[in-house]
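Translate structure to sequence.
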């Protein structure tokens, strides 16, 4: 089977397509699934892991997580959708043939992966394609956790969403609306129609307007792109409001430890979070947003796009013919 691998942190030229031994079903652990991957996404987390490019003050923590000197996982990628090819002897939640999707830290840019059945996986909701399912875990799990569990958004609250057309933002806008909030979305003018279509009541183009210049105050400011700061936005936050950082430097993280008004955390994943995500999709609260769809051989281009921080929704990679032996052009250290 083929997989996207990297041996060292660095530029996209470090990515390579490698032929690896196929995984034998007999080698599966009792609680493992063998999954044929049809679609994966490239996210900001994948770019950060590839380049060891972590937010300010988080470089050591990032490397301790991803691998101190070189990537802990040679195979890249975290989000996937595919079909179960084989199950371990004690698997109860899934069966051969199930379409599944989820997030798995063990590297998913491969034709086959092994995932424990207790990991962040669920059956693909009815009506979704593999690409649509693969577009959800990173952004939508994060949006659900930060809006529902961490910020505890209430109906009627006024919410400012920065980075609204990006990987997490497109799900923040939809879910905040579903929860009954009034949503002001911040992105460039080019993406206004996209975020209005997702439910935004008002759109601010950050290139021509500073949200603070509106002299409005919000119940919740939620920032997945690290473009707001606590002192600068203090007067834009209502008494009792929450300034929520999904991307944060060390300053915001330290502030969140001493103030209830500043919230930072790490997305809680797991099978329960995936089941809630499926319920939200089936209820029509969240729909997948795919801005870019490419063959797996374009992985370097996908990473460059994500790194520029102007992607629209999810960036999806698919094996050239899902389910069949891939026609991959073997590449030397670059795609
Ligand atoms: N804490 C956690 O557990 C957790 C979980 C998931 C992700 N994260 C982190 O959160 C971040 C998520 O990023 P993402 O994937 O959503 O980012 P992204 O896709 O790169 O975000 C791009 C968005 O940001 C907008 N943008 C660019 N400059 C802006 C500015 N100055 N003001 C307002 N918006 C601006 C872009 O608008 P235009 O394109 O229209 O210009 C676009 O809407 C990553 O750093 C990731 O590592 C953390």
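Result:
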């Amino acid at each position: 089977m083929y997989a996207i691998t990297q041996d060292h942190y660095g530029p996209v030229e470090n990515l390579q397509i490698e032929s690896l031994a196929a995984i034998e079903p007999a080698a599966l652990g009792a609680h493992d699934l063998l999954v044929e991957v049809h679609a994966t996404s490239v996210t900001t987390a994948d770019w950060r892991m590839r380049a060891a490019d972590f937010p300010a003050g988080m470089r050591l923590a990032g490397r301790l997580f991803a691998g101190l000197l070189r990537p802990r996982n040679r195979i890249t990628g975290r989000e996937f959708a595919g079909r179960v090819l084989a199950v371990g002897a004690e698997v109860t939640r899934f069966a051969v043939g199930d379409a599944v999707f989820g997030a798995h830290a063990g590297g998913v840019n491969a034709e086959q992966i092994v995932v424990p059945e207790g990991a962040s996986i669920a059956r693909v909701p009815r009506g979704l394609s593999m690409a649509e399912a693969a577009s959800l875990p990173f952004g939508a799990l994060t949006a659900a956790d930060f809006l529902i569990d961490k910020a505890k958004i209430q109906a009627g609250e006024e919410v400012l969403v920065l980075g609204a057309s990006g990987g997490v933002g497109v799900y923040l806008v939809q879910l905040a609306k579903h929860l009954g909030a009034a949503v002001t979305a911040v992105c460039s003018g080019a993406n206004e129609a996209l975020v209005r279509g997702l439910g935004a009541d008002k759109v601010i183009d950050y290139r021509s307007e500073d949200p603070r210049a509106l002299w409005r105050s919000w119940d919740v400011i939620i920032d997945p792109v690290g473009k707001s700061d606590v002192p600068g936005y203090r007067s834009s936050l209502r008494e009792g409001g929450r300034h929520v950082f999904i991307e944060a430097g060390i300053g915001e993280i330290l502030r969140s430890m001493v103030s209830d008004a500043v919230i930072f955390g790490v997305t809680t994943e797991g099978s329960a979070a995936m089941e809630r995500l499926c319920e939200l999709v089936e209820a029509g609260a969240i729909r997948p947003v795919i801005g870019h769809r490419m063959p797996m051989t374009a992985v370097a281009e996908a990473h460059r796009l994500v790194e520029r921080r102007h992607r629209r929704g999810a960036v999806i990679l698919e094996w050239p013919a899902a389910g069949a032996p891939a026609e991959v052009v073997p590449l030397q250290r670059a795609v």
